[in-house]
Amino acid sequence: xxxxxxxxxxxxxxxxxxxxxxxxxxxxxxxxxxxxxxxxxxxxxxxxxxxxxxxxxxxxxxxxxxxxxxxxxxxxxxxxxxxxxxxxxxxxxxxxxxxxxxxxxxxxxxxxxxxxxxxxxxxxxxxxxxxxxxxxxxxxxxxxxxxxxxxxxxxxxxxxxxxxxxxxxxxxxxxxxxxxxxxxxxxxxxxxxxxxxxxxxxxxxxxxxxxxxxxxxxxxxxxxxxxxxxxxxxxxxxxxxxxxxxxxxxxxxxxxxxxxxxxxxxxxxxxxxxxxxxxxxxxxxxxxxxxxxxxxxxxxxxxxxxxxxxxxxxxxxxxxxxxxxxxxxxxxxxxxxxxxxxxxxxxxxxxxxxxxxxxxxxxxxxxxxxxxxxxxxxxxxxxxxxxxxxxxxxxxxxxxxxxxxxxxxxxxxxxxxxxxxxxxxxxxxxxxxxxxxx
Length: 438
Ligand code: ADP
Ligand code: ZN
Description:
The protein is an alpha/beta fold. The chain has helices spanning 10-13, 17-35, 39-47, 70-75, 109-125, 144-156, 168-177, 187-196, 221-231, 344-351, 389-407; strands spanning 89-94, 104-108, 133-136, 159-161, 182-185, 211-215, 234-241, 246-252, 259-261, 266-271, 285-291, 302-308, 323-324, 329-330, 335-337, 340-342, 357-368, 371-380, 412-416, 431-433. It has an 8-stranded mixed beta sheet. Bound molecules: adenosine-5'-diphosphate and zinc ion.
């Protein structure tokens, strides 16, 4: 059975696999040409004997290219991965999870254009139309979630409300005032919003909501169902990461059975994270992505550290692009706190620079209502506890500010006397994550 669904670019979205592979090969060659203009890839590709796009004779030649890691991106900061003249760069984005040195992604005009098109495609695939009012609750700024969907929604012709993240009362009021029909939001924030409905006299019946695009953080099928039932909407999973443009890498269609990964724009591989061996459809492993549509910062075989699997081709909607499963975990210790990526090492690096802080600390994550809550517990030197309370409060505040500067979000900070936090013999367990797994 094929579902009757709308398309943005039916020819590409339903292209036979052979056609998709043809496009991939042509674009891979083009991308290798761009990559050879960067200092980083020039060295890396030359080492494996790839000196020009013609050295890519078939898609299997992709396997000759070494993987690219987050560290490679950091070490190339700021321009090691820039393939065009700065004049041609239209926009800069960076990743939310950064340790000290940020990862920066440059977009040329045609890059923004192609990315926007992928988002328009994703949006239309959910059944949203130019008749919808779209409230974008993702953070704008250097994050890709805000501007990415913003441009895509405009291209579809939706009425866009660029409200950005936070300020729940205003979000609810705005949903009512403009009769918002579609949201872009993290699942945890949407649950939070639901819990606040009715507080200011605005209830579900005053709203016109019909859909939500939920992403930027892992969530289960149960969470999706819960959101759908509580709010009477359809919720669609949206996956992306800034290294690969941002949202629009993979998005659910009306069937809501995992996310079509746009294979004319990305080559997806699943690998064994320990050995690097490529796995087959249906087998779980680390997702590796090659961007085929970005000229200013080309990225080949990027190790996302996200664990997932790919379904074999085929979907009731008629799209031929393979579907990506939910993200099942991470190969590293990255925490996602209300959609923002945080590495424990970022926290450690900051607090250890503060002279008053002793050697032991703990990162504690739990839920307050629907939202994630991050608490950093630090031990400080005993003599400080003998001083004035105001001084302690100032120190606590200073630590909050230091951390906020690094991890973007504001954690709670607790000061403890030395010896009061658990001590470990051998490998310390610094992170205690007590968020319920549903
Ligand atoms: P964002 O601004 O969306 O957080 P980042 O590049 O900072 O973009 O973070 C990307 C990471 O966020 C991904 O590698 C993945 O771990 C996580 N992520 C994004 N979307 C999803 C999703 N739908 N489900 C699970 N995890 C997601
Ligand atoms: Zn589909």
